[in-house]
Amino acid sequence: MLEFLNTNPAFDLLKKDHDTVKDLFDQFENAEGRPAKKKIVDQALAELKVHAAIEEEIFYPAVRRPVGKDTMNEADEEHHVAKVLIAELEEMDGRETHYDAKFTVLAENVRHHIKEEEGEVFSKAKDAKVDFAALAQTMMERKATLRAKGVPPAAEAAMVAASHGKGDSPAKAADKPAARAPKTRTAK
After folding, report:
1. Of 69, 164, 174, 182, which one has the fewest beta carbons inside 10 Å?
2. pTM of this prediction exceeds 0.70
3. Contact, 136 vs 10, CB < 8 A?
């Protein structure tokens, strides 16, 4: 009945971040014009980078054991995929033919991750012997530092930069003129 009195400050902080990026994803879907979309993408990427950092540095280590290795390993891999897409988007200027598609795929992956995190991870972590108030405070302080000083580059950003666009999805190939098919001889 008085469940609202039992809120978890760490979960609340992360859910607020989740709501922020989901709102940005919705804005992107409804945006018209390249400058508007680019601005939304830039905002979403900045939010996602800070959010991923506080989860990976603070939240995930605190709940890894009670949540379980398999669930947390999956969350780690979902972060890795998102960070590759983020790095690829940061290398783009917004005019590429696959820019919108790449951001849409990022949004779909992040929405999936949020659903699993809020459902599975939070439910398994809620009874852990963790001081969630102190954890939330640490996450808020780290978030402020990351916003002020920037998020350190992720390994995925270095990987994408080193590929010089050659490691991008089939997007580059789709933009190239189609190769001519060899002529075939007809039987006489």
Report:
1. 182
2. yes
3. yes
